[in-house]
């Protein structure tokens, strides 16, 4: 089987969105609708106020999106806080923990979206 080669061409434009959701649990349906209406490929959410008991499906539909999150417990905050990245399943992603800092609300991922021929 031949090895795929990168063509150097960009397939289609990608949509990246950002929102301060001020609590994902009470706005779950609204946030999911906003992501789909905007045809978002990558979404950064801050102030999620999520806790470990908050389910992933509160953020996105797992059939279409991958989720990386840092809940407020991980941020060492008692109120507010929490960040998440929601990325379409078609992308390859890898969390870059080597860039994250304990105690800060910082979440890094590498997103790979190459068009191959």
Describe the protein's architecture and organization.
This protein has 117 residues and is an alpha+beta fold. The strands form two sheets. A four-stranded mixed sheet has the order 1-2-4-3. A two-stranded antiparallel sheet has the order 5-6. It contains two helices and six strands. It has a single domain, classed as Deoxyribonuclease I, Chain A.
Set out the fold topology:
Blueprint: E1 16-20, H1 24-37, E2 42-46, E3 65-70, H2 72-75, E4 83-88, E5 92-95, E6 109-112
Compute the number of helices: 2
- Widest sheet: strand order? 1-2-4-3
* SSE sequence, one letter per element: EHEEHEEE
The CATH homologous superfamily is named Endonuclease/exonuclease/phosphatase
The total beta strand count reads: 6
Most strands sheet: 4 strands, mixed
Unreliable sequence segments: none
User: Strand fraction band?
Assistant: 25-35%
Structural class: alpha+beta
* Radius of gyration computed on alpha carbons: 16 Å
The appropriate CATH architecture is 4-Layer Sandwich
Helix content: 10-25%
CATH topology: Deoxyribonuclease I, Chain A
Average predicted confidence as pLDDT: 83
- Number of structural units classed as domains: 1
Level-1 CATH class name: Alpha Beta
Shape: globular
Q: What is the assembly state of the chains in this entry?
A: single chain
């Amino acid at each position: 089987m031949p090895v795929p080669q990168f063509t150097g061409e960009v397939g289609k434009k990608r949509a990246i969105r950002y929102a301060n959701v001020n609590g994902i649990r009470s706005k779950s349906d609204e946030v999911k609708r906003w992501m789909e209406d905007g045809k978002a490929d990558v979404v950064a959410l801050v102030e999620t106020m999520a806790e470990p008991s908050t389910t992933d499906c509160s953020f996105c539909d797992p059939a279409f999106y991958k989720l990386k999150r840092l809940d407020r417990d991980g941020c060492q905050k008692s109120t507010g806080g929490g960040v998440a990245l929601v990325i379409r399943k078609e992308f390859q992603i890898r969390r870059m923990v080597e860039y994250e800092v304990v105690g800060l609300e910082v979440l890094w991922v590498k997103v790979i979206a190459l068009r191959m021929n």
